Amino acid sequence: MAGPRLRWRALSKSRHIPLQITRQLKPLRLGFVPLVDAAPLIMARELGLYEQHGLRVQLSRELGWATIRDKIIFDQLEAAHALAAMPFGATIGQGCMPCECLTGLVLNLNGNAITLSTSLRDQGVRDAGSLRQLIELRRHDRRFTFGVVFPSSSHHYLLREWLQRGGIHPEADVNIVIVPAPAMFENLRNGHLDGYCVGEPWNTVAVRRGLGWGVVSSLQLASRHPEKVLMVKKSFADQHPEEHLRLIAAIYEACQWCDRPENREDLARVLARPGYVNVPFEVLRDSLTEPVQFGTDQPESPHDFHIFHRHEANVPTLLKAAWVANHLLRLGRSGSATPATPAMLPRILRNDIFQAALHLTAAPAALTETNPKTETEPACC
């Protein structure tokens, strides 16, 4: 894909600051789930950014988030595209053996939506309030089922928030089940789900197939929430600091590229490939470039729906950490997990590592994106 690669190189002008790095004995294994927001990991490969930073990387497409988490814990992946809460959940042993994990890079903000079946629309559902009326009407013969991708995920939080705004109790009134993101549409088509909250392109797939419609987006429910991060084990960050910094720098530069509107069509062409997201180019192009309609008269800009770099998206701040702890971790709590504490936040979302990695990028001005000294540690957990 010469176009995007040449475009990036023209912008970067080889301004990377040298860093001594030990010779890699094997490629770094990076996991991702086939979603639009895996784009920075994928484009860092396609744009030659890993190589520019002296890294050999092997991308590994995975089915779902539990697989990603477990492969990180058991050293089958060095790093991964991960839900924002996953480094926290792994560290405290939420649904898994405790394993200290961290992130030095937020990959994106927003990007999720709630899709409902066309059957619900045919029965008069237009929003959460009209869904509540249908639930009351069908209470004795039908219980509606909705999918989310992981217990401690923004998708679970957003779905519950939307239901509650309409007066629907998430436990008493509906079923909420865990379904891998790539399996959401098939379960909707087969009648196993009445709706779901998921990242792209699986909302657009349902809309284009005429089997679903978007009722609300994450931009409307929790604007600019942290969505995905680059997750590693703390032991990897401690034992391979140079490789970790170079990895963050390469993916950070890819985040910048992905956020530019003029690159979105090229991005859709790459993501459509069988080894990546593997859905038709037209679906990905619509998701990344077309105005998005979610149950309102005013379409949303796809540039605001998918935020890969703007608005300090990539900075792992305490404010983002507190949002994750307050809104997402509580959804996956179990008796065996150690409770999260405010002191954990800066040890898991590592702004110090992010700032160090910026010195290796082609955009040193980004060092001014945030000033950690101006932040106060919010109450959490």
Please indicate the count of domains: 2
Separate helix tally: 19
Radius of gyration: 20 Å
List low-confidence stretches: 9-18, 365-377
Number of strands: 11
Architecture of the largest domain, according to CATH? Answer: 3-Layer(aba) Sandwich
Order of helices and strands: HEHHEHEHEEHHEHEHEHEHEHHHHHEHHH
Report the end-to-end length measured between terminal Cα atoms: 45 Å
Largest beta-sheet characterization: 6 strands, mixed
Features:
alpha/beta; globular; 11 strands; D-Maltodextrin-Binding Protein, domain 2; 2 domains; six-stranded mixed β-sheet; five-stranded mixed β-sheet; about 375 residues; 19 helices; about 40% helix
Written overview of the protein:
The protein has 381 residues and is α/β, with parallel strands linked by helices. The chain has two domains: 2-109 and 225-374, Periplasmic binding protein-like II (D-Maltodextrin-Binding Protein, domain 2, 3-Layer(aba) Sandwich), CATH 3.40.190; 112-221, D-Maltodextrin-Binding Protein, domain 2. It is built from 19 helices and eleven strands. It has a six-stranded mixed β-sheet with strand order 2-1-3-10-4-11, sandwiched between helices. Strand 6, helix 8 and strand 7 (175-178) form a beta-alpha-beta unit. Helix 2 crosses helix 13 (241-259).
